[in-house]
Structure formats: structure tokens, C-alpha cells
Amino acid sequence: MRQPFEKPRALEPSTLELIDAIRTKVVDVAAQYADEVDRHARFPAETLNALREVRALSAAVPRELGGMGCGMRELATMCSTLAGACGSSAMVLAMHHIQVACLVRHGLSSPELRQYLKDLAANQYLLGSMTSEVGTQGDTRSSICAVERAAGRFTLKKDATTASYCAYADAILVTCRRASDAAASDQVLVLVKQKDSALKQTTTWDTMGMRGTCSPGFRLESSGPEQHIVPGAFADSSAQTMVPYSHILWSSLWWGIAADAVAKAGQFVRGEARKQPGTVPPGATRLAEASAQLQALRHNWLALACEFDELAQRPDGMQQLLTMGWALKMNNLKITASEAAPQVVHKALQIIGVLGFKNDSKYSVTRHYRDVLSASLMISNDRIAGKSAAMLLVFKDE
Amino acid sequence: MSSNPDTWERGGIDNDQRIETLARIRCVLLQHGRLGKDAMQLAENDDLYAAGMTSLASVNVMLALESEFGVEFPDQMLNRSMFITVGAIEAALRKAAGA
Fold first, then answer.
1. With respect to CATH, is domain B5-98 assigned 1.10.540.10?
2. Which of A127, A247, A293, B86 could form an S-S bond across to A99 if both were Cys, CB 3.0 to 4.6 Å?
3. Is A233 on the interface with B (CB under 8 A)?
4. In total, how many domains does chain A have?
5. What ipTM, to 2 d.p.?
6. Are residues A182 and B50, on separate chains, in Cβ contact within 8 Å?
7. What are the boundaries of each domain within chain B?
């Protein structure tokens, strides 16, 4: 169903304050530690503390539970603001918002999960993610492990290939089969608190980029109250929340990384221009191209963030998010943004030249380049394209 | 299912025809649903996703249904809930044929 594009709502004043606090306070901290975080592949603890201080970790929690009730556009703006200073920090923030959104949009009928969100807002807890599993070949929509229920408690064991910053999270959202006799695709989400679980690290996280996200493999053993199983099917919460939040927030942060690289290229070109007024430096034309690509990339995620916020206000919004048309839009955004962002960073590197290639120059874009190359791999673009191809066999785009 | 309004709205339609349609739907599911159980034994209200149908398999089921019944499902009907049970598919087919 096509609709005229409506003017997006203005951002809430309190949200503007939060975004401003991230820009003025958190970004400085993130930038200060980004090289060290990257070099040692260590968790950006200082940035996370700064995010807690400005209460950014409850941005997606509804106001009545002590959060700020931010919409997609607002969350995306936060992630992109932080991404230029430290891609890993922005990815941790994005992953956290995605998990919180799953609880907010699918867990509020459970008093226990409601209470957990209040606690999260009050204590600025960090929520991690464990969707991958040894043996499922990267398909997050199928699980081998299953949650078992007995006497009001659940038990869950999972062998995950990559688990986002789980060693630093106060709790983790884990995908698994609904029961031991359920089909692989019949999944649920379970909130596993740190105190209810034992994590054993099984692999390392010595990666090319996004090194500070600290996401090695873990073997999880957990047990907790049955009420921590998120109501409903993961099939729905995935389509209605996890996928749109992931693809829009990730795209915004990839754009943020690319935008920072282009800002450095611009700074470099202006420096060259000042040396020889009257002569347009050779990199200026490439800079113009990069600027255009960057704008297209930004408007792609921004338009879909606004469309999502609009749908969230509509009574049939949740149903619309289950349609194939919306799924295709999300797939198209993910593929386009993850392919465009590295190209833009590459262009910035060509403009700057060897000073961009050096790790220790003020024009360095080496970390940007390595971080942004993760984009096409975080849920493989080939897998997503395959799903889109299948959908287009029946989707008519009427 | 008695709570399904489609059941009593169908007064004029020959019940044999409906039973035949349900059987043809089960055949399509048998060939393309990749279910973890025998599609021919599915009850009208059994959840196909709980029976193991993936989203990718559901696309093949939609394609095969379009071919088997000579209909085209409009985009608005292409979502999980429309194809969640044999009964839901039968209702979707009637809706698509009438659309």
C-alpha cells in the first residue's frame, strides 16, 4: 500500500537534549578511547559509563516506566551521532536499543518484564544479544537449543557462535525453540539475567573491525523465572521489531561512520585549497561525489525511520510490519546501506591519500574502513538477497 | 472452527467442494511446506509455522497455491497470518478469487 509521505514529527525537547548530551559529552569520551578500544579489542567501558550518565540506555523505554519513549528516528540519530567517534560504541548502543525495543513492544503484558524495564531505566542496565548458534549456519530464524519449563522456572542452554558483548551485559535476550519438541523455526525470546546464568567463552574476538563490541562465542547455561520468556512468537517480534530496529539503526550508524570519514576528507581538501587559493584541489571532485552518496544513504535510513514511527502510531501498524512489502523495504535498506557505506569510506581514503592510510595521522580513516566492512557480514547480504529474491516471486508491488 | 465466521457465511457453497479444496491445499503443503509432520494429516486449525514451515517455504507454498488454484494473492494478503493454517489458506483463496 503506497501512502503520501507525511512530514515527520518534530523531535521531543527532552530527546533533543539527550542527543545534544551525546554529541557534546559522550562523543568526546568515545573519541578519546576509540583507538585504545580498537587496538586492544577491548570493551568501550568509558563510553558506556558516559552513556549511562546521560541516561541514554533507557531512551527506548516508555516514559511511564522511567525512560524517554524515543521513536526510531530519535534512536537512529543517537547511534549515528556516536558512530563517527567510535563505531564499536555505536554498535553496542544500537544492539542495546534493539533488545530493549523487543521487550518494550512484545513483553509489556508480562508484569515481570515490565518491572525489568523499570529496573533497566533506573539502573541503566546494558542488554546484550545472543541470536546465533553453532549449527544453524547463521540463520537467526532457526534454533537448535530449546527452553524447558518446569515448576514455574525455565532452563536454557545455548552454544552461540557470536554473542554481542555478553560478558559486559547485565542481561541477555536469547533466541531458542519454544519447547524441546518444537520445530527449528518455532522460536521464542528469553530474558536471561547475568545472575541467572553461567557463560563460558568458547572462541575469541580478534577481528578486522568492530573490535570493541567484544562478541566471541559463548556457551550459556541459565535458569530463571518462567515469566522471563517473552510472550508470543519470535517470528512476530523478529519481523515487527528486531529486523526493523536492526536494519534502520545499523544503517544509521554505518552512515555515521562514513560521514565522519567524509568530514575528514573535507577537512583535508580544504587544507589543500588554502595552500593554493584559486586552484581547486584534485580531491574536491571526489569529495562532491562522496557528499552526494552520503546524502542518498542518509535519506534512505531517515525516510524508513520516519515511516516506521508513522506506522507505530497507526492501529494497523503492527500488521503492516508483517507484510512482505515492509520486509522487502528492510532488506533493501540493509543491502544498500551496507554496500554504500564502505564505498563512501573508500572514496574518503582516496581523497586523503596516505595520510588517511596511516593509523596515527589526524586524517586516518583506517578504523572507519575496518569497522564499516562488518556491515555486509552482520547477517550476510547474500542470505538477505536470497530471501528478497524468493519474496519477489510472489510480491507484485501494486 | 465454529468461531470462524467464514464457516457459517459459506451457506450456499457445496461442502464437498470445500473438502476437495482443503485436500488440494494439503497436497501443496506436502510438496512445498517442508513440514516436520505429514501434511495430509493436518487439522484445519493446526499452526503451520509450529509444524516447521519456514518463511522461505511459505513463499514456495504461496507460489504453488497461485499455480494450483489459478489466483494471484494481492500484496496485502502476503503475510504470515494469512497462511498460518489450512483453514486460513482456504479463506485466503476464496478472498483472492473474489478480489
1. no
2. A127
3. yes
4. 3
5. 0.78
6. yes
7. 5-98
